[in-house]
Amino acid sequence: MSGAATVKGVLTLGNGSPLAGATVTLTPVDEVPEDGSDITPTTVGTATTASDGSWSFTLPATLPSKLQSYADANGGVLSLEASFDGQAPDGTLLTGTDYVDAGVATGSATTDGSAAARAETPDTVAIHPDVDEALVTPADSTLADSADSASDTPANHWQAADGSSTTGFSPDKVDGVDYSAVTPDLGGACIVSKHVVKQHDYYTTIGEGHAYYDTTAAFEYNNTLSSTWGIATSVDGEHWSITGKISRKNSTGHAVGFTNQGPYWAKRFQVPIEYQDVDRRVTCVGKKTKHSYSIIPVKYDIPSGGDVARYGADVRSKDGLTPYRNSNPSYRAVLGKKQYATITSGTSITYGVAAKVFGVTVSLDTEYGASHYQKISAGSGSSEHDIWGAKGKISGNPGVIYSY
Q1: What one-character-per-residue DSSP string does 41-99 give?
Q2: pLDDT at 141
């Protein structure tokens, strides 16, 4: 890779209409201290939205040392929060938050993470009213979380932290007033601070392996985190949506995985990740302080007495004759006797329930590489070994290899 990194996004009103002329402020995700102390975020830069709501910002070719250290610790990727704060004519705070990755490692220092960040598709984020004046602390959780599910469906656009239905919930209505079509001032008159409300370890699905008939499966997640999370955000601490994504490429110091599992075996694989619930406090001129929240993955972290990794949901239902017949014929391939196939590039499918964090479901993709892979090995059985990709050709970006 060469040249300075550029990050992009799109900002809209609650009804989807573009928000033009708005000031978007970029701050580093990784500067919020774990001890819960308050900080005033460092402004990396600002951008102004165009007539279609789009914005972009090109980082300097040489970063300040503090920002460079964040990127170095995250595999050449600088994770940024892109935020907007403005006030409706009646004074109500309207805010929107996106999360973006800047691939800052270039030249001979280019990393897989940096290259992947530069290929990311911009997110579209809507602004919503924030009237929450009281800090919301998430309920205590345990390591025996409820994320052990086989669903690949991306997390619901809106979800409640207590698991209750969000039917009828509108993020744009406050006390009967609908702000979805209200254009606020264009931002810049508010003061922001951040702190960590709570942090906890949750076992998170980062991949899977499949082994039907007489095959065996292997999976390895080695030395660094190599996944991209959908970030959950909220303006009230109760209702959450996935807005934007960031990559975590920091060192784990460990290699975890499994080998030679099978035949007729298929399971998800989970590792413990530390997550933070971060409070973003906004005080606008002459107004009370408002709170919004983000759930941020931080690092691989084995809890005291916890497993270094564990098996997740059983996903054998994705293998066999019926799934094979229902698969895309162009994604299929034949695996010869005593041969194996390994995914060492591309990304896994999106795990919509990668983890249940403080009661909120977060999603995740894993990037495969030389030390992050899924493997399937065939035995010497008399029948043909058929394999296919979940989302593409085996020779392309299959995501996951299924088998029959």
Answers
A1: ----EEEE--TTSEEEEEPPSS--HHHHHHHHHTTTEEEEEEEEEEE-TTS-EEEEEEE
A2: 57
Q: Which of 321, 342, 338 is nearest to 386 (CA)?
A: 321
Q: For residue range 48-103, what is the model confidence (pLDDT) as tens digits?
A: 999 999 999 999 989 999 999 999 999 999 999 999 999 999 999 999 999 999 99
Among candidates 249, 217, 194, 208, which has minimal Cα distance to 75?
249
Q: How far is CA 82 from CA 41, 182, 235, in A?
A: 12, 21, 15
Per DSSP (E only), the strands in 301-382 are 310-314, 332-335, 340-343, 351-357, 360-366, 372-377
What is the residue-wise DSSP string for 226-270? Answer: -EEEEEEEESSSSEEEEEEEEEE--EEEEEEEEEEE-SSEEEEEE
Question: Residue 365 to residues 180, 332, 351: CA-CA distances in angstroms?
Answer: 31, 22, 6
Answer yes or no: are the C-beta atoms of 208 and 265 closer than 8 Å. Answer: no
Angular region, 356: left φ>0, alpha ψ -120 to 50, beta rest: beta
Gap between the Cα atoms of 35 and 276, Å rounded: 11
Q: Is the pLDDT of residue 334 over 90?
A: yes
Query: How far is Cα 227 from Cα 117, in angstroms, rounded to an integer?
Result: 11
Query: Of residues 356 and 319, which shows the higher confidence score?
Result: 319
| Four-residue CA torsion sign, 58, 64, 67, 69 | positive
- Structure-token pair, residue 326: 């229902």
Q: Domain ranges for the chain, please list them.
A: 6-403
Six token digits for residue 323 = 């799934």
